Amino acid sequence: MTSQPQPEFHVGPHRVGPGNRPFVVAEMSGNHNGDLGRALAIVDAIAESGAPAVKLQTYTADTITIDHDGPEFRITSGHELWGDRNLYSLYQEASTPWEWHEAIFERARSYGLIPFSSPFDDSAVELLEGLGAEVYKVASIEIGDIPLLRTIARTGKPVILSSGAATVSDIDLAVETLRAEGNEQIAVLGTTSSYPAPPAETNLRKLPIIENTWNVVAGLSDHTMGIGVSVASVAFGAAIIEKHVTLKRSDGGVDSDFSLEPHELKSLVDESYAAWQALGVPRLGPTEHEAESLRLRRSLYIVEDAKAGDVVTAQNVRSIRPAGGLEPKMLDVVLGRRFTQDVTRGTPLTWNVV
């Protein structure tokens, strides 16, 4: 039985997949608070953090819902952030105006960042194609929009699927839909589609299952507070980590409560890289940087001067640092033997002196 090739794709100069540095995606979402200047400042902060990509969401209130005030068109009362909000007004507030996209993409590219977006209908894909988007994201709730997935797949660009609230069959259908259009550049992000998400519901153990079941790049779209869950995800194979970003949570906004501030984003970039470096390979044994520790390991040393013929005792031979003498496990073997020559304190005990 032959194993499947390891999933991987390129986004600009970045290789994304197992064995590569985590691809950190900074999601602006609605944190621009309706101000293009603030949106561009968020891009500046993302660039300074070292994250390689900035993501938008491309929709209008009219492309994602309709202006209706029936109970079905309201967020459930009691929702932690948006309880009882009307969908249309919420999406009006949170959407990124289409006329801003070009300026945001240009600012991102001026830093070498990868700008991309989640389109919510075909017209959004058309806009993003005109801007030269290099990768696409499918939001969790859109994973079942098969016509939209087909449109995105036909661009030939890598597709990142969020899987919040999705069943196994939802994910399977989405992946097969993309592949049926000839697109094999697929990532699936483990996602908890609640805002903020409790860490206990993140279930990082599903990431290897995602990768192995569908032979896709696995990652995490993280809506928990802080960076701990994101950093931990690297140990479970997350090759992509997405987090919402704002300038300052206290400024408010629809997504600010569960978004990172710039210094936290930098910590995520740095610590996820450290976590990835720490994964290593499945073997035991000293590393090349442990040479000094090996030199300082305990061994048997002569700790009192002795004459040829004297008996080796626990008083004149001890297990001490550094290395150089016989291993400490040999102490019981040498005790009671006699020295074959005069020895001085500080000499490593070796077989040629007993």
Automatic annotation (TrEMBL):
It holds the Pfam family SAF. The keyword Protein transport does not apply. It is an enzyme of class 2 (transferase). Residues 1-21 are annotated as: Disordered. It comes from the Bacteria. Its EC number is 2.5.1.97. One of its GO terms (molecular function) is transferase activity. Transmembrane segments: none annotated. Gene3D superfamilies: Aldolase class I (3.20.20.70), Antifreeze-like/N-acetylneuraminic acid synthase C-terminal domain (3.90.1210.10). Residues 299-354 form the AFP-like domain. InterPro entries: AFP_Neu5c_C_sf, Aldolase_TIM, PseI-like, PseI/NeuA/B-like_N, Pseudaminic_synth_PseI, SAF, SAF_AFP_Neu5Ac, SAF_PseI/NeuA/NeuB. This is Pseudaminic acid synthase. It comes from Gryllotalpicola reticulitermitis.
